[in-house]
Amino acid sequence: MTSQAADIIMVAGSGRSGTTWLGNVIAGDDRRIIFEPFECRRVAEFAELGMRPYFPPAEAQPRWHSKVEALFSGRIGNDWTDQDRKRLDPERDSGAVVIKEIRANGMLAWLSNNFPCRIVYLVRHPYAVIASRVKQQWDSHIEAYLCQPRLVQDFLAPYLPVIESAQGSVQKHAVMWCLENLVPLRQLPHYPWLFCRYEELAAHPEAEAARLLGLLGLEFTPSRRQALAELSRTCSQKPTDRSTQALTDPRHALPEDERRAVARIINAFGIELYQEQL
C-alpha cells in the first residue's frame, strides 16, 4: 500500500442494491458517512472521473491517487457527500469513516492496492435491482462502460454482441447490472473484501449484520441496531406489495417474459451468482 489514511470502510455495490442501508448500519453514530464521493456530476474534484470508472489494479493513476488521498484524508467534501452527517453523534465521533459508493465497482481492486481501506461489496438480485431502477426511471449509462477502451479490452470484449443487442429499458438495465458486477465478481477471490448478499441481510438482518460487524471489528451498538431496523420498517408492508415479495423471492419483481430476457443476458455474461433464482 502506498498511502496512509483514516480508518476507512467502503460499502460498494450497484444503485438500488441496499448500499445506503448497509452503510448506515456499519457507520452507526460514531463513524462519519461520506455519500457517493465519486459522483462526477456532484463533486467538482472528480468531475472528469467519468460515470463508471475502471482502473486497472496495477496502474499508478497518479492524478486520481492524489485526489482519492485527499478524499480519504477529509480534504474533499460538500453538501452532497455530507448529506448523512446528521447521523453522526459528535460526542461519539471516532474519526473513522464509512464511504457509501455505487460508482466505484471498477476501482475496488485499485483502491485495495493503494489505500488501507476495507471494502464491503454488496450485491442484490438483478430482478429486484432492475425493477427498482425501471420504476425510478433511471438511465442505464451503458455507454459509460463502452467508452473505456482498457475496460473493454480487459473484460467486456467477449460480451459486446449481447451488450449491443439489448432492447428496451429492462434489457438495458440487465446489461448494466452485469457491467457493474462483472469486474468485482471476477476480482473478489483475489482480495480480502467482505461479501454480502442483500437478500441474506434482508431475510436474516440480525445474524448477517452481526457477521459483518464482527469481521469489521465493530460493536453491534444500539445506533447500529436502529439503522438495521430502518429497512425492516420499510419492508413491513402489505404482503401483496411486489417489492416486499421480492425480498424473499426476487422472481416476484418482474413478469415472466422480462425475467426470461434478463436471465438470457446474465447467462450470456457467465454470472452464476443467482443462477438458482433466474
UniProtKB/TrEMBL annotation:
<protein>
    <submittedName>
        <fullName>Sulfotransferase</fullName>
    </submittedName>
</protein>
<dbReference type="InterPro" id="IPR000863">
    <property type="entry name" value="Sulfotransferase_dom"/>
</dbReference>
<dbReference type="InterPro" id="IPR051135">
    <property type="entry name" value="Gal/GlcNAc/GalNAc_ST"/>
</dbReference>
<dbReference type="GO" id="GO:0001517">
    <property type="term" value="F:N-acetylglucosamine 6-O-sulfotransferase activity"/>
</dbReference>
<dbReference type="Pfam" id="PF00685">
    <property type="entry name" value="Sulfotransfer_1"/>
</dbReference>
<feature type="domain" description="Sulfotransferase">
    <location>
        <begin position="117"/>
        <end position="238"/>
    </location>
</feature>
<dbReference type="InterPro" id="IPR027417">
    <property type="entry name" value="P-loop_NTPase"/>
</dbReference>
<feature type="compositionally biased region" description="Polar residues">
    <location>
        <begin position="233"/>
        <end position="247"/>
    </location>
</feature>
<dbReference type="GO" id="GO:0006790">
    <property type="term" value="P:sulfur compound metabolic process"/>
</dbReference>
<feature type="region of interest" description="Disordered">
    <location>
        <begin position="231"/>
        <end position="253"/>
    </location>
</feature>
<dbReference type="GO" id="GO:0006044">
    <property type="term" value="P:N-acetylglucosamine metabolic process"/>
</dbReference>
